[in-house]
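Workshop exercise sheet. Pairs work together: one partner reads the sequence aloud, the other fills in the structure field after running the prediction. Swap roles for the next sheet.
Pair: D.N. / O.F.
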Amino acid sequence: MEVVAQKLGVEHKEELEDGKVLLFSRNGIFQARFYKGDRSYIYKSLKTKKLDEARRLATKFFYETEYKKSEGLPLQQKSFGDVMREYTAHRQQQYDQSLQGNANASSKGQVSIHMLRQIKRVSKFLIECHGNKAV
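Structure field:
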């Protein structure tokens, strides 16, 4: 296990909360890993080099994630910029489908080239102003 940890660049590794959280460090910065189910994990940088503070932050991260999971809330937040880029891509896809003629009667003409151009123009400025804010 130590050889694998050294190859990955992991300097410190320990399990917290009965093995549900993995606390590890890379390049001196501590990070936490939480199993969210369906063979996937949530990783979070704890942005500290102190072991005691990292343990406290990892435990806090675990309980916050468990609460979100029990309440049916999203475990990870998206930024406003990510949502706007997804929306713009969706509208671009609708426009492309309308050009191909594969769209059904209810969605034909739903997005014009002028509307798409305006969406892209406005989203550019909105992303610059609010791109990093959590949604």
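Discussion prompt: The chain has two domains: 2-71, 80-130. What would you look at next?
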